[in-house]
Design brief:
Layout: E1 2-3, E2 6-10, E3 17-21, E4 28-31, H1 34-55, E5 63-64
Antiparallel strand pairs: 1-5, 2-3, 3-4
Length: about 80
Amino acid sequence: MQTRIVKVHEAEEEGGYWAEVEELPGCFGSGDTLDELEQDIKDAIETYILALQENGPPVPPGHEAEEPNLRRWEIAVAS
């Protein structure tokens, strides 16, 4: 199973969250909760990859999943 690194952001003005997939330029998702965001970004990734498979260019490689059900977020904290 291939995985993608998703960067999660808080939507400051409107509330909720949005996410981006750096290795898939232009692939974004949003949600009022983290669970909604997770589903939306999964759908966005699937749609993005299907479009690449149909129209090119080649799909960028993902990363091998260490744990298939692991939800990993990139989180910045003040030091």
